[in-house]
Every structure is written in C-alpha cells, then in structure tokens.
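Appendix C reproduces, verbatim, an entry submitted by the partner laboratory led by Prof. M.T., so that reviewers can inspect both the input and the predicted structure.
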Amino acid sequence: MAAVATAEEEEYEAVLCVKPVVHVYRVPPRASNRGYRAAEWQLDQPAWSGRLRITAKGKVAFIKLEDKTSGELFAQAPVEQFPSIAVESVTDSSRYFVIRIEDGNGRRAFIGVGFVDRGDAFDFNVALQDHFKWVRQQSELARQAENPDQGPKLDLGFKEGQTIKLNIANMKKKEGAPGNTRPRPVSAGGLSLLPPPPGGKPAPVCPPGERPSSVSTPTQLPGTPITDSLLLWPQPDAPSAPADTWGDFAKASGSSSNQPQTNMGWVQF
C-alpha cells in the first residue's frame, strides 16, 4: 500500500481547459429515458455562476466549478471515461451539458452547466475527448509492451499472383546482341589465338612465308659475317653445298673476292 500511495503522490494534476464564465442550473428529475432538454431549466435564473476548470490526474479528468475571485471549489465531477453518464449533452442545444458531481463522501447529484459562447462549449467537449484519447493510447502501448508477440507482424511474403519489376540499366542484354561476346582474333591459317593478357600488347600476326620486320637481328658472331641478304635467302638442304653459291651475294654486299664467277645454269633470254 505504501508503494501505491507513493505512486499516486507522484502524479501531478494537469490543467486541460479553463473557462471564466459558466452557469449552473437545477435539473428536474428525468421522467423517461429520453435525453435532457435545456429549455426546462429556467435558463434566465441560474442557481450559481462562476469559473470552470478541467484538470487531469492520471487517467481521471475532473470538472471543477470554482469561484471567480477566490478560486474556492463549489463542486467537482470526476470523469473516468467519455462519453459516459458523468457528462451528457442536452438534446436541444450545443451550449448546455448535464454533469454528475460528487462530494467525496459517496453522495452524487446531477446539475446542468451552460456556456454563454458556443466556442467555450466546443472547447469543453474537445478537452475531454483529447484527454481520453490519450488514455486509450497509453493503455494500448502498455498492453503491447506486456505482450510484444501479440502485436501485428509485418508480412513481407509475395501474395498469389503478385510480381515485382526491377529496372536496372545496362545489367541485362539480349542473347546474341552485338557486343555480347568478344570475338577471338583468328590467324591467317585459320587458327584461333588466345586474347592478349591484360595490359599486354598483342603479338603481330604474319601471313605464312613472311617474317615480321620487327624481328631483331641475331647477334653477330666473330668471324661469321651475317647480313640482311643472308637472312632472307633460303637455307641449303645439306651442309655439302658448293662454296661458290654465295658469289653473287658476296659481290652485292660489297666484299672483295677474286673468285671466278660460277655458272649456275641460268638461261638468258
């Protein structure tokens, strides 16, 4: 009990609405289940006039009727839910209400209250609605905190017949479209060559029987003169070829040889 009392003492009283002028009327007993009518209250002779304040402490709202000057409490009506029997609207006007007041000793009575301005009556009604809307939200949050598994679950699955469309540019090409495959270079002999390694230069492809011009000349050995003409001449089949076969080339290369020129059997026309 001590813990409950401490919790109640920690709750503060919030002011929801203040209206400086309100009139109080005696309400005749209701003869049937039909609603109250303000026309039956003798509106030109209010029983009391003063100030109205709506406060809230926890989930309960209090309608307090106070003296305008001293603030002395005339009567109050605790409201635990709205709409309810604690606050009822009349059937013939929007400026009048019937509230149930309590004295704290178990005695209750119904009185009528009325506002001069319709805007004040509207504010009175909205203040009560907003408070109990907040109460319902707090109750729902507390219930979800106690039972988190009972809350609504997010369903990310596809329903029957439901599709999804992705629009990603340059990610999908039609099969067989230009640029889809990179052709391999083919040599003159019909052989397919592998593509060059990344960053490397492709090797030159030469037709059969030709030599690339960029081939480096072999290193000259001592005592063995090698010229470009020798590289382009067909090599002999056997090492026993006559030594004077190279006579014409020796003269063409500028070598001074006194060997007689050998007839190679060529026919002159």
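Residues 1-6, 253-257 have pLDDT under 50 and may be disordered. Additional entries are available on request from the coordinating office.
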